[in-house]
Amino acid sequence: MKYAEASKFGGPEVLTVVEKETPTSGDGMLLVEVQAAGINYTDIAARNGSYPAIPKAPFTPGLEIAGIVREVGKGVEEFKIGDTVAAITALGGGYASHLVIPAATAIPFPKLLDPALVAGVLVQGLTAYLALDQAQVKRGDKVLITAAAGGVGSLAVQLAKAKGATVIGLASESKVNFVKGLGADHVIDYGKPGWAAKVSEVAGSEGVQVFFDSIGDLASEAFPLLGQFGRWIIYGLRIDKHVAPLPAVAPSVMIGKNLSLSGFNLGINLHRVPSALKELFKSLMDGSLKVEVSKYPLADASRVHTLFEGRKTTGKLVLVP
Ligand SMILES: NC(=O)c1ccc[n+]([C@@H]2O[C@H](COP(=O)([O-])OP(=O)(O)OC[C@H]3O[C@@H](n4cnc5c(N)ncnc54)[C@H](OP(=O)(O)O)[C@@H]3O)[C@@H](O)[C@H]2O)c1
């Protein structure tokens, strides 16, 4: 089997492809031939050594896979060779041609679905779906989404629209048209000064009801945009940025407008995954949810990391081993 290994913590150059003997499935396990290994921003943090769940190198990045069962371990009744399964692998290991997973964690998916699309709705799709649900996005809400062209962001735009919200996407200039194509009502380049005034203009006097945030350092500009009963939900941070403190007026504004601030962590929402995935797979099958996938060979893992952290990508990035 082939796999990409981060020999030590560091930049994209620490990722190389290595080979070893393909493992066999032990009791209660499945050997999966990986057809799509999803890439997440969290992999960048892991490679840099700033993701606590992966405390030491060498390690293989990759939090999610979709593929075909090639071997079934003793005691496994629910799966057979040839079944299509996906998995979220909290400790990495996904950037590989094969992976042994506990059968109990395998997620069956319809054979008709492209495994790359399935990977697209695992960590990022579930985060978009469950965090929007936590933010109680409803018809008529104005939802402000950071990194709207990104993995989570591009799905959040579509899911918020499907709930009847008005979506205001924030993206780098080169990605504005991409986000418009996803159905966002307004897209604003947040690399330019004055972007918050533009959001305020399109949000009108009622302001923004939900600030869906993967960045963490836009508080001073975005926080005042929230209208009455506004909800700011934060689910991500950038590894190269500090988290800006809340503006000093925050407590009084929060009281005055009845605002709430909450965090989201997929890892402690796993009990909600089966019903959420059922919905996400259904939306993929009927075409109402589009995952814009860019596929790369496993050998390009290092190059894709360079592009990803350099803000050069849109949508879902997948390695096809
Ligand atoms: N809480 C959870 O359970 C959970 C689950 C999944 C993901 N996350 C987090 O959610 C965030 C989004 O994840 P993702 O995988 O979908 O990534 P992503 O949003 O696709 O990340 C890449 C995009 O982020 C934007 N960006 C803004 N500032 C950046 C910076 N300083 N450096 C690099 N990119 C920057 C860029 O778009 P623009 O150029 O348009 O700004 C870039 O293309 C990450 O922080 C991730 O760790 C959290």
Describe this structure in words.
The mean pLDDT is 96. With 321 residues, the protein is α/β, with parallel strands linked by helices. It folds into two domains: 2-121 and 291-320, Medium-chain alcohol dehydrogenases, catalytic domain (Quinone Oxidoreductase, Chain A, domain 1), CATH 3.90.180.10; 124-266, NAD(P)-binding Rossmann-like Domain (Rossmann fold), CATH 3.40.50.720. It is globular and about 60 Å long. It has helices at 41-48, 115-120, 123-134, 151-162, 176-181, 195-203, 219-222, 250-257, 273-285, 301-309; strands spanning 2-6, 15-19, 29-39, 64-72, 84-88, 98-102, 107-108, 142-145, 166-171, 186-189, 208-213, 226-234, 260-263, 293-297, 316-320. The N and C termini lie close together (10 Å). The strands form three sheets. Strands 3, 4, 5, 6, 7, 14 and 15 form a seven-stranded mixed sheet that branches. Bound molecules: NADP nicotinamide-adenine-dinucleotide phosphate. NADP nicotinamide-adenine-dinucleotide phosphate is lined by residues 40-42, 123-124, 127, 147, 149-153, 171-172, 175, 214-215, 235-238, 240-241, 264-267, 309, 311, 313. NADP nicotinamide-adenine-dinucleotide phosphate binds next to helix 1, helix 3 and helix 4.
- How would a textbook summarize the main sheet? 7 strands, mixed
At the fourth level of CATH, the homologous superfamily of the largest domain is: Medium-chain alcohol dehydrogenases, catalytic domain
Q: Roughly how many Å is the radius of gyration?
A: 20 Å
**What percentage of the residues does DSSP assign to strands (E)?**
25-35%
CATH topology of the largest domain, by name, is Quinone Oxidoreductase, Chain A, domain 1
Strand runs, count? 15
Class computed from helices, strands and strand pairing: alpha/beta
Number of helical runs?
10
| Terminal residue distance | 10 Å
| Residue windows where pLDDT falls under 50 for at least 5 positions | none
Q: Would you state the CATH class of the largest domain?
A: Alpha Beta
* Helix-strand string: EEEHEEEEHHEHEHEHEHEHEHEHE
